[in-house]
Design a protein that fits this description.
The structure holds 2 protein chains of 2 kinds. By secondary structure, chain A is α+β, with helices and mostly antiparallel strands. Helices cover 33% and strands 26% of the residues of chain A. Chain A folds into 3 domains: 47 residues, Uridine Diphospho-n-acetylenolpyruvylglucosamine Reductase, domain 2; 114 residues, Uridine Diphospho-n-acetylenolpyruvylglucosamine Reductase, domain 3 (2-Layer Sandwich), CATH 3.30.465.10; 104 residues, CO dehydrogenase flavoprotein, C-terminal domain (Enolase-like, domain 1). Chain A is built from 12 helices and 14 strands. Classes of the chains: A alpha+beta, B alpha+beta. Chains A and B meet through helix 2 and helix 6 of A and strand 4, helix 3 and helix 4 of B. Bound molecules: flavin-adenine dinucleotide (FAD) and FE2/S2 (inorganic) cluster (2 copies).
Chain lengths: 287, 183
């Protein structure tokens, strides 16, 4: 099928894009990589009247360093993420998760910002953004605002983005191996090209044989990505060992309410969350 | 209608398209480039893979208007120019290694494989399988596709494909032992 007819605009600056969205009326959709939006439009599950294409907006693509943060443009593609030297040095967790997203063709077009704005519970990148306490820079008619990851993901396919707003950049902390950080994205799927049934994004900081900090994001354990807070708390100050990591991972599903669907039942997802958390932590801690 | 300028397989075109026209439909229906096929409605199968500015993309998941000002290469543009022009090494390898049965997935498989080999000229079996994970084949079981890609890789690196493993997998079902025994 082909999409229903729409009017198309291709702005070249953020200001023009915001204007095009404002002029577009009630039924406007922003097009980033199109790897979620175009399939949905082909199936006529969405039929916007106006499509504002961001692919030629200057300055939304690429990664830069600002003090102790990395700033990733919303239109940075998954393929860009995999080859960026700054991300390779300071954001291995994002790189590892992005490697598991879709396939080479989809990664060429799909964007980091698009995947976050889409907020699919099975999407791999929201849990990474949450685990890293990313900050979301949003531009709107009234200027820019910054929203923490803990407030960005509101519900199933729903974010803090209001009508008329654009996600422009994502700020990530630098987690360097030299500072003791180890990371792992552990994803469970049945076949190569598939969304996560459950996945775990883990970052662990070690100092002198002990864990000083752990950050764990869970993919597809509820309508939004979640932090495994009980496990994170249980890890602070413990010795780096398989026993401590295994004991902490047993709490990974606490407070989660995953869905039942054709891929898995909720109790199986909770089981997976514990197993994958143990594996991710062990790998991140270098065990 | 929106006007676009594109170069497809080395020729320049200026055309009016509806914004909702998918690149694959523009290629097939307006330019008659029916070598690129559509195999699904969900962006999963990869049969429609073409190169957009040198990179493999699923042409069912790109709007024709988005290709404005770009270069597109389809399966029809990878062989040497002209009738009787030499096939691309990857095309030849799919032929020689029996990398196809019905052939529907083949244009996309070849375009994805060429893209993979540009990035990784000597992929392991696993790397080939991962490299073409966006392309589904419902006939071959992938075995000979993987061999074809590795065979082409060796040729493109300028090595004679001397690997003893580099022959089509011996799965001639008609002659399989249990079949023969039954007849
Ligand atoms: C076959 C296939 C397999 C896939 N597998 C996976 C997978 O395993 N894991 C995974 O995580 N993802 C997967 N994806 C999805 C992929 O990651 C998409 O790239 C992503 O979900 C959407 O990004 P996009 O840039 O293509 O956004 P689009 O499709 O262009 O947009 C998605 C939504 O976000 C909105 N939006 C986009 N950018 C902005 C912005 N800057 N500001 C405001 N709103 C915006 C759009 O309006 C739209 O509603 C898969 C996709 C396909 C086709
Ligand atoms: S036609 Fe199936 S991915 Fe394009
Ligand atoms: S040869 Fe028939 S789908 Fe691949």
């Amino acid at each position: 099928m082909i999409p229903a007819a729409f009017a198309y605009s291709r702005p070249t600056t953020v200001e023009e894009a915001l204007q095009a969205i404002a002029d577009g009326g009630d039924d406007v959709k922003v097009l980033a990589g199109g790897q979620s939006l175009i399939p949905v439009m082909r199936l006529r599950l969405a039929a916007p009247e106006v499509v504002v294409d961001l692919t030629r907006v200057e300055g939304l693509r690429g990664v830069r360093e600002e003090g102790d943060q990395l700033v990733v443009g919303a239109m940075t593609t998954h393929a860009d993420v995999l080859t960026d030297p700054l991300l390779a040095q300071y954001a291995q967790l994002l790189v590892q998760a992005t490697e598991t997203v879709a396939d080479r063709q989809v990664r060429r077009r799909g964007t980091f910002g698009g995947a976050l704005a889409h907020a699919d519970p099975a999407g791999d990148l929201p849990a990474v953004a949450l685990a890293l306490d990313a900050e979301f820079v949003i531009a709107g008619p009234a200027g820019r605002r910054t929203v923490p990851a803990s407030e960005f993901f509101v519900d199933y396919l729903t974010t803090a983005l209001e009508e008329g707003e654009l996600l422009v950049e994502i700020r990530l902390p630098k987690l360097a191996a030299a500072d003791g950080w180890g990371v792992r994205y552990e994803k469970f799927t049945r076949v190569a090209q598939a969304w996560s049934i459950v996945a775990v994004a883990a970052a662990v900081r070690r100092e002198g044989g002990r864990i000083t900090e752990a950050r764990i994001g869970l993919t597809n354990m509820g309508p939004t990505p979640l932090r495994a807070s009980a496990t994170e708390a249980a890890l602070v100050g413990v010795d780096v060992s398989l026993e401590t990591v295994t004991a902490a991972a047993a709490q990974a599903a606490e407070g989660t309410s995953p869905s039942n669907d054709l891929n898995a039942q909720a109790d199986y997802r909770q089981h997976l969350a514990q197993v994958l958390t143990r594996r991710a932590l062990a790998a991140a801690a270098g065990l | 209608m929106t006007q676009i300028n594109v170069r497809v397989d080395g020729e320049s075109y200026t055309d009016d398209v509806e914004p909702r026209t998918l690149l694959v439909h523009y290629l097939r229906e307006q330019l008659g480039k029916v070598g690129t096929v559509v195999g699904c409605d969900t962006s999963n199968c990869g049969a429609c893979t073409v190169h957009l500015d040198g990179q493999a993309v699923k042409s069912c998941t790109v709007l024709a208007v988005q290709a404005d000002g770009s270069q597109v290469t389809t399966i029809e543009g990878v062989a040497e120019e002209g009738i009787g022009g030499a096939l691309h090494p990857v095309q030849r390898a799919f032929h020689e290694m029996h990398g196809l049965q019905c052939g529907f997935c083949t244009p996309g498989m070849i375009m994805a494989s060429i893209d993979l080999l540009k990035e990784n000229p000597d992929p392991s079996e696993t790397e080939v399988r991962e490299g073409i994970e966006g392309n589904l084949c419902r006939c071959t079981g992938y075995q000979n596709i993987v061999k074809a890609v590795q065979h082409a890789a060796a040729e493109m690196r300028g090595q004679a494909p001397g690997d003893p493993d580099a022959s089509p997998a011996a799965v001639d079902t008609a002659a399989a032992e249990h079949v023969v025994a039954q007849s």
